[in-house]
Amino acid sequence: MTTTIRAAATPPRTGAPRAGSRPFGLARHSLSLAGRSLIKTLRTPEQLLDVTLQPIIFVVIFVYLLGGAISGSQHAYLEFLLPAIMVQTVLFASIATGVSLNTDVEKGVFDRFRSLPIARSAPLVGSVVGDLVRFVVCIAVLFAFGYAIGFRIGTDPLSTLAACLLTIAFAFAVSWIGVLLGVLMRSPGAVQGTAFLLLFPLTFGTNMMVPTDTLPGWLQWWVGVNPVADVMEAARGLIIGGPVAGPVTRSLLWTVAIIAVFAPLAVRAYRRRA
Amino acid sequence: MSYAFEAEGLVKRFGTTTALAGIDLAARRGTVLGVLGPNGAGKTTAVRILATLLRPDSGRATVGGHDVVRDAGQVRRLIGLTGQYASVDEDLTGTQNLVLIGRLLDLSRRDARARAAELLAWFDLTDAAGRPAKTYSGGMRRRLDLAASLVGRPDVIYLDEPTTGLDPAKREEMWGVVRSLVDDGSTVLLTTQYLDEADALADEISVIDHGRVIAHGTPGELKRIAGSQTIVVRPTEPERIGEVADILRAGTGAEPELPRPGLLTVPVENDATFTAVVRRLDEAGIGVVELALRLPSLDEVFFTLTGHGAEEPTEVAA
Ligand SMILES: Nc1ncnc2c1ncn2[C@@H]1O[C@H](COP(=O)(O)OP(=O)(O)OP(=O)(O)O)[C@@H](O)[C@H]1O
Ligand SMILES: [Mg+2]
């Protein structure tokens, strides 16, 4: 027999600082856990395939199939469409957070975190923050593809950066809805399905593809109240030019409101889950 | 007396199932409490309550004097949990898993790395340290999981069936680990389905069934309640069974039984008798295919204590 564990020699107990003795615990622990999500994303880059390919396919279909008919010029339509597709893509990418969280909870990975002296919300914050990098990847791929087929920003790089950040902030907020689903629901598949059902009317029920005034009345009403329409409007204004102040303000308010409601709900649900 | 942890009257229901029907558990500092029970007895539920993962419906529990519900944060500073099913992150390497825990326990990056390397070496995982845990064998995962629960040098360690599914050699090694943890001053709660494991490791044993403690005592006390140990002999030459029976009768003063052709069993009071019997068989030149001193099985213990075997619980009345 090869006795591999040297049972006689114990790891020393000396000198370890007692956990929880340092300040800013929630921020540090969340960042450590975000690092974990990041490692997982980097280790399985194929997970990013669907969220990066999907917008490319959408752009190709809409611009080349419908662009001519909708706006008379494929190039003009590409300018109109791409900022909105960016918002849609990042929102779909945010679903993954809830799905992987559900997997972690089911598999018992979170049991370990829950037995550690860290804030109950840290694993949730960590997951959401760690997935921000997915959004950046999606945006980078989309812009690269857009530039390759002739898209050009109509404003300046700073405004474009602002549009990206606004979109990421909004997706960060929406991630918390995914987290709530991830904590409440019984299987990753259910989380994914429900999130898709929620996101379809939110992302397609907008002026993403056609100007609002061409829509039927009830849909115009929906576009008016739909926060995703505001974010798309803001992104469009910041990237290709157009009204900015109103949509940006509304987007930011929505972002704050969604976080304020869903982050505490998610943390509460997580605390309660046996 | 100073208890590392103490639970009184814990009750936990899941819908109509009563997982715990009011159990008391306690371990003195630096000892091992064995919690022995069949499937569904409530072992995991009790551990999860003591580890602050579940709230009891009633009753109370303290670890190091801190209430597991009201002072959960304080309790979490003292405990290390190795659950029944490994809860390592499969996408992370062994090192990454342990460093993450270290960072969450507020070790500096350097200390977390050092602690991870030390534990990986101790559990013989150094060669696999850089591989994702999903490539580990079941036994390796178990060890990594246990290592993860030791990163913070906890005072109280919960091990929920740590040897289930391990081969005999790995099981012995795990026993060695538990012993060295206790030598080091930790208090261990160990759940198991095997009486021999509880016998080998525990200072005291609580036998639980249907969410209740049905017996508590030192291993010696329990074995006395549960009935004596048994010598089992199967001679190489079946025709010499008569001689073997004579030796057993003389050695133990009890009448041997013949449960199967060629196999003799006889109850025995203490280990010394067994040694004497072995010597006499040897002197008589009787070869044996099988010769063992058996503890009563969990099933026999249960039969003695409850009048029924250790079967899966049906519905337990609240
Ligand atoms: N989350 C849960 N929901 C519903 N029932 C549960 C839950 N957890 C445990 N139970 C039930 O409570 C009882 C005790 O379960 P527990 O897991 O504590 O037993 P155990 O002694 O650990 O068993 P095993 O040896 O199989 O691990 C069982 O009847 C089980 O079905
Ligand atoms: Mg169990």
UniProtKB/TrEMBL annotation, chain A:
InterPro entries: ABC2_TM, ABC2_TM_bact-type, ABC_2_transport, Nod_factor_ABC_transporter. GO terms for biological process: response to antibiotic. It is a multi-pass membrane protein. The chain crosses the membrane at residues 48-70, 76-101, 122-148, 160-183, 190-210, 252-270. The keyword Membrane applies. GO terms for molecular function: ABC-type transporter activity. PROSITE patterns: ABC_TM2. Residues 46-273 form the ABC transmembrane type-2 domain. It comes from the Bacteria. Residues 1-22 are annotated as: Disordered. GO terms for cellular component: ATP-binding cassette (ABC) transporter complex. Keywords: Antibiotic resistance, Cell membrane, Membrane, Transmembrane, Transmembrane helix, Transport. It is found in: Cell membrane; Membrane. Residues 1-20 have a biased composition (Low complexity). Belongs to the ABC-2 integral membrane protein family. This is Transport permease protein. It comes from Micromonospora humi.
UniProtKB/TrEMBL annotation, chain B:
Transmembrane segments: none annotated. Gene3D superfamilies: P-loop containing nucleotide triphosphate hydrolases. Keywords: Antibiotic resistance, ATP-binding, Cell membrane, Membrane, Nucleotide-binding, Translocase, Transport. It is a peripheral membrane protein. It is found in: Cell membrane. InterPro entries: AAA+_ATPase (IPR003593), ABC_transporter-like_ATP-bd (IPR003439), ABC_transporter-like_CS (IPR017871), ABC_transporter_ATP-binding (IPR050763), DrrA (IPR005894), P-loop_NTPase (IPR027417). Its main location: membrane. GO terms for molecular function: ATP binding; ATP hydrolysis activity. Residues 5-235 form the ABC transporter domain. GO terms for cellular component: plasma membrane. It holds the Pfam family ABC_tran. PROSITE patterns: ABC_TRANSPORTER_1, ABC_TRANSPORTER_2. Belongs to the ABC transporter superfamily. Drug exporter-1 (DrugE1) (TC 3.A.1.105) family. This is Oleandomycin transport system ATP-binding protein. It comes from Micromonospora humi. The lineage of its organism: Bacteria, Bacillati, Actinomycetota, Actinomycetes, Micromonosporales.
